[in-house]
């Protein structure tokens, strides 16, 4: 009999110990899930890659055709309810599809926008009539969907939107005016989720069809990357929207905007993880082909170190994504199907892990950034030339740290949401911070139990959690409610929280896989954990030092810095061998190892 997973609340990973038995890992995919992943890969191979250059050149007719074919294969209906023709699959499967679509390049952006922020507002907040009218068209690919939140003057400040909605004299329509900026799928979508303020006050969402009077599609933006995706303005010029097309409650548009973005961030994390795997393989293959000084460059330690670091990073990225998928799936499975307020409870479950969704977006997009940068470097001058895919990877990557909320905004959200939970009494952060301060004043003589898998890494993890609590506690003590205005301190706290979640995800996955794995895989997993823990601890230590200098001075600062040194100590003996083993594995297999 399978034991139920113990599920932590959002943010609770910082104060509680997780067991490897309680997390989901990619090695646990069912045959059905793997089949859906393979179907997605075949779709990319058969439908996208033969038309890749034309799509990149802006032939959006091909994008629309491919979307319809994706609909025929069921790839657009992962999250849609069964009663409307959807598959209503779990988040792990949905993320797997998002990961496998990544080699489609710009098409994957159109796909992600359609299946995520384009479709989910209707699923979560639509009335029965709205779903009957629009959902089948969306999930079949007959219509494409877009999401219109950003405006020229309000990027990260979504609630600062200026678009207005005014009820017509006959009470049948809302008249929308304003301009929406950077709308993915804007050029060919048939249904737009548009946010505007009724009477310049009540922030509300509307379902707007392309053919509604007064909707004007702007010119295509000329972009740095993702050139095969459509990005336009949507101009609302006295646009007439029937009153029955109000989505959700009047004045509650912020709930739709933010809750849907949580899933959007998570989907982006899965997509960029797939893109990072693809880019890494391209770099490894090139390193095996390219010769300098009479040798393949893959034989040089300088190249091998890059390959090892990237492999470890991507392993952590993948581990984090599917751990979060497991958390969400376990939480969502506890909601009784068929209850009247099902999607209200569903949204609460998603919102519970808003912190982890933000973490996944930041961490995974920055792993992709490092990956494409190093892949260009491995290519040398050829990486700068458009004949090689490394150049496109580099350009396409950049947007991921901007959309779905910039990484800076997401970093600020992470400690902000954790602190809010603590203030509401949902996380006992204050009590745990007091214990952490006590441990700072108490010397530790604990010895590692070498019989415990990954003992050194687990001790490091516990120490990093203690360090986070010390710094967060110091921040609250000094600034109280005004801590929310100290962005530099919040950013440092976020970096620490992000690395802790990634390190823990990497360790727990390796521990869970271990007993079932081949000896080679166990060695590679151990190597990946060691390499990642070393690199991530350097990032965490730097963040903690920044936080200490931002918060204190004098003797208190000295004490904090002493704590940083103590709690970021990690015995990474065998690090060079671990890097060489990871690199050799990737070079021999010419694929992502895990």
From TrEMBL:
Domain Acyl-CoA oxidase/dehydrogenase middle: 146-239
Catalytic activity: a 2,3-saturated acyl-CoA + A = a 2,3-dehydroacyl-CoA + AH2
A single GO molecular function term of this UniProt record: acyl-CoA dehydrogenase activity
Keywords attached to this entry: FAD, Flavoprotein, Oxidoreductase
Record-annotated Acyl-CoA dehydrogenase/oxidase N-terminal domain positions: 30-142
Oligomeric and partner information: Homotetramer.
Key word Flavoprotein present: yes
Domain of life according to the entry: Bacteria
Name of the protein this chain belongs to: Alkylation response protein AidB-like acyl-CoA dehydrogenase
Organism: Geothermobacter ehrlichii
Family: Belongs to the acyl-CoA dehydrogenase family.
Pfam families reported for this sequence: Acyl-CoA-dh_C, Acyl-CoA_dh_1, Acyl-CoA_dh_M, Acyl-CoA_dh_N
